[in-house]
């Protein structure tokens, strides 16, 4: 009986072997390539890079002020420019853009895969919005999104910038210009023939930028938003 039991078990094991090998093959591939670990690492590093609050750091170093309790309380380039001058504002803009740009370029150095590159850029963008260094709060993502778009869809920048400038010039609200530019980015990328992954990326970033501007939208509706041309203009980048 014992022998029959062992023989039966062996027969069943032999029958199951092809199925087990089939299920194990993807795991062997992932293990061999190590891509799962590398992808997780690059996405995590991109998020952490994006979460560095350069505006806050520059304001502390060169102005001795806490940007979150000054002006609009935002950590972006506009509040830095209003509080500490245009030069530091531009420096913040460039550094925040560099976060998105560097994340995409670093991913491309490891993989020639547009999906992974887009995911890295999006993680950097999310890091700016939800920085663990600031209790998972952050900026509105406009500058970092610009860096991601510069790396993934550079031809989109010029027409979107024209929309931004036109809106701000006409109505004087940077928030309105940012919202309009965010809304126009996906259709512009589509019209210019960029691949679906880029369209999805611009849709996701654009939607989050608009959501992060919900307080600005409320003030615009009530006529309470501060225009860029005044001394106390609203920071929104």
Task: Write up this protein.
The chain is an all-alpha fold and 237 residues long. The protein is built from eleven helices and no strands. The protein has helices at residues 2-33, 35-50, 54-63, 77-84, 86-110, 114-129, 142-152, 157-171, 174-191, 196-212, 214-222. 42% of the residues are buried.
Strands, helices and their partners?
Layout: H1 2-33, H2 35-50, H3 54-63, H4 77-84, H5 86-110, H6 114-129, H7 142-152, H8 157-171, H9 174-191, H10 196-212, H11 214-222
CA gyration radius, whole angstroms: 24 Å
Q: Write down the secondary-structure element order.
A: HHHHHHHHHHH
Mean pLDDT: 84
- Which oligomeric state applies? single chain
Strand residue percentage = under 5%
Largest sheet: none
Summarize the structure.
This protein has helices spanning 2-33, 35-50, 54-63, 77-84, 86-110, 114-129, 142-152, 157-171, 174-191, 196-212, 214-222. The protein has 237 residues and is mostly helical.
Pick out its properties:
237 residues, disordered C terminus, mainly alpha, disordered N terminus, 0% strand
């Amino acid at each position: 009986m014992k022998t029959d039991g062992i023989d039966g078990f062996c027969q069943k094991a032999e029958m199951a072997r092809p199925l087990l090998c089939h299920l194990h093959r993807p795991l062997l591939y992932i293990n061999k390539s190590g891509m799962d670990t590398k992808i997780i690492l690059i996405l995590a590093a991109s998020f952490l890079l994006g979460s560095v609050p350069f505006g806050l750091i520059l304001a502390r170093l060169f102005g001795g002020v806490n940007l979150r309790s000054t002006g609009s309380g935002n950590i972006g380039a506009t509040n830095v420019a209003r509080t500490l001058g245009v030069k530091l504002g531009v420096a913040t803009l460039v550094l925040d853009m560099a976060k998105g740009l560097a994340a995409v370029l670093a991913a491309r150095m490891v993989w020639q895969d547009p999906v992974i590159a887009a995911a890295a850029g999006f993680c950097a963008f999310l890091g700016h919005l939800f920085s663990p260094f600031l209790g998972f709060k952050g900026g509105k993502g406009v500058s970092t999104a610009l860096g991601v778009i510069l790396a993934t869809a550079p031809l989109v920048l010029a027409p979107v910038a024209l929309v931004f400038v036109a809106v701000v010039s006409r109505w004087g609200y940077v928030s309105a210009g940012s919202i309009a530019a965010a809304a126009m980015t996906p259709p512009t990328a589509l019209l210019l023939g960029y691949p679906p992954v880029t369209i999805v990326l611009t849709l996701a970033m654009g939607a989050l930028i608009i959501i992060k501007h919900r307080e600005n939208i409320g003030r615009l509706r009530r006529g309470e938003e501060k225009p860029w041309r005044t001394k106390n203009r609203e920071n929104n980048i």
